[in-house]
Design a protein that fits this description.
It is built from 19 helices and 14 strands. By secondary structure, it is α/β, with parallel strands linked by helices. It folds into three domains: about 170 residues, 3-Layer(aba) Sandwich (Rossmann fold); about 180 residues, P-loop containing nucleotide triphosphate hydrolases (Rossmann fold, 3-Layer(aba) Sandwich), CATH 3.40.50; about 120 residues, Helicase, Ruva Protein, domain 3 (Orthogonal Bundle). The chain has a five-stranded parallel sheet, sandwiched between helices. Strands 7-10-13-6-14 form a five-stranded parallel sheet. It has a two-stranded antiparallel ribbon with strand order 8-9. α7 crosses α8, α14 crosses α16 and α17 packs across α18.
Length: about 475
């Protein structure tokens, strides 16, 4: 019986199969990796790893395996120096020996979890049983390797840890989106239009997107500030990282701190907190602060300190975390005016307002009204399963002469109302055209179209009679859908 048992141990994989412990510790294939490092995922080269082991041979082995494969690898011979390293640096994964002179790796890991350690941990040991596995789970270890192990097993374990962390962040971002009450996937449309004003804004967004600087986007209600923020993120070096949305209106100091920093789960021994804050779940990405001028003075103080120190401490933790996020803020009023009125910290204004992008109201880019009407009509009709009604000359004049105080948002809702009633004519309310004053854009359009009609559609002749360039006529006809 002994010989059979020993034989089974010799044939067993060199890594403990912990499937009996639900989903806390993953099983990794112990077979050789014929394809090399590339199979471990693209995030491996960005990982920061801390190795904690009292054996010089094991530290040297792990250091050689990881050097040139991960972005950074630090080694520590004891838990005391490892704690100091955690105070100074942020690591994605900790590879931790269990049996060490001062204290076990599991005891040290449990202590670190209680004061604010959110990195994934991989426990390595020469002795393992079910009790050790249970202790590892309680201490917050996400993986388990049995000595001796091969280099590919270490790399595979780290890759799995990075993937788990990525999924946790992704789930946290989705929870934040649901709490905000907005599906960000519905706000990916570009700022539409062909007017010179909106083209200039698109160029500003593209230029600002190339940097990591904080940006303030100013515009009226419904002007497209959320869409502009998404465009900015998509054109930035952070495009492959999360974009997270936070409404600033009505935020208390406590809720603002918890939403940003997260909260250490003191009721769960060793586990990574369920209350992960925005700054960790969206690390490397973009935080969009909607209506930032509405932040209370206490919340402004928190944000100002965060930007000044570049670090934050989750609620209930005693160890701070590096800040790695770009802040894009939106505001209805010029933030400088709000600061001069002493309703916004002046130093915070200067920190956030590195670049300002101003969105023109729809009434100032009337060339885009008909194009936007056509776009919303086609998009909403396909979603609603209805046909697009004819845009009559009366409706066209009313749309062009309307002030659109709600901007693009109002236009979109007006089009939806027109599709419901199958007519654009009364989408802006009862026809009171005789009391309306036509805008210059509407008068210009009506006059140009009348000249074109008199010239039998000959644009060159119409341009000659109007004293403008042929390209001007072409551009305006294209914007009007003529």
């Amino acid at each position: 019986m002994r010989g059979g048992a020993e034989g089974r141990h010799r044939l067993a994989p060199q890594r403990l199969n912990m499937t009996v412990t639900a989903q806390h510790i993953t099983k990794i294939n112990a077979s050789a990796d014929p394809s090399g490092v590339s199979r471990f995922g693209t995030d491996l080269d960005l990982a920061r790893v801390l190795v904690v082991d009292d054996e010089p041979g094991m530290r040297n082995f792990l250091s050689k395996v990881l050097q040139g494969v991960v972005a950074r690898v630090d080694v520590s011979e004891n838990t005391e120096s490892a704690s100091d390293m955690l105070d100074q640096n942020t690591y994605d994964v900790i590879v931790l020996d269990n049996i060490m002179p001062e204290k076990t790796g599991l005891d040290w890991l449990a202590e670190q979890r209680k004061i604010g350690l959110f990195s994934d941990a991989i426990l390595i040991t020469a002795h393992a049983d079910l009790d050790t596995a249970i202790q590892a789970i309680r201490a917050g270890a996400g993986d388990f390797l049995l000595k001796p192990f091969r280099s590919n097993q270490v790399l595979n374990a780290i890759a799995h840890s990075l993937e788990r962390a990525r999924l946790r962040r992704q789930n946290s971002v989705l929870r934040h989106e649901l709490e905000v009450g907005k599906d960000l996937l519905n706000h990916r449309d570009a700022l539409l239009g062909t007017s010179a004003e909106i083209q200039a804004v698109r160029r500003e967004i593209e230029t600002a997107g190339m940097s990591h600087s904080h940006v303030v986007i100013r515009g009226e209600v419904g002007a497209g500030k959320q869409v502009a923020a998404r465009m900015l993120h998509a054109s930035s070096p952070r495009a492959d990282k999360p974009f997270v949305w936070l409404k600033c209106y009505g935020m208390s100091e406590e809720s603002f701190r918890e939403r940003l920093f997260g909260q250490l789960d003191s009721t769960s021994e060793g586990s990574i907190s369920e209350g992960e804050g925005i700054l960790r779940s969206a690390a490397g990405g973009t935080l969009f602060l909607e209506e930032v001028e509405m932040l209370s003075r206490d919340c402004q103080n928190i944000l100002a300190e965060l930007l000044s120190t570049g670090r934050f401490t989750p609620v209930g933790a005693s160890r701070s975390v590096d800040l790695d996020i770009r802040i894009v803020s939106s505001t209805l009023r010029p933030l400088a005016d709000v600061a001069r009125d002493d309703a916004f910290r002046m130093d915070l204004f200067y920190s956030l307002n590195v670049v300002e992008i101003v969105l023109p109201p729809l009434r100032e880019r009337s060339d885009d009204i008909i194009a936007l009407t056509s776009f919303f009509s086609d998009t909403l009709a396909a979603r609603m399963g209805t046909e697009v009604p004819v845009l009559s000359a009366l409706a066209r004049r009313r749309f062009l002469s309307h002030d659109w105080p709600g901007n693009v948002m109002e236009l979109r809702n007006t089009v939806e109302r027109a599709l419901i009633h199958r007519s654009y004519d009364n989408a802006l309310g009862p026809n009171v055209e005789k009391f309306e004053v036509e805008s210059l854009a509407a008068i210009e359009q009506r006059h140009i179209l009348a000249v074109l009609e008199a010239c039998n559609g000959n644009r060159a002749e119409a341009a000659r009679r109007l004293g403008v360039a042929r390209k001007t006529i072409d551009r305006k006809c294209q914007a009007w859908g003529v």
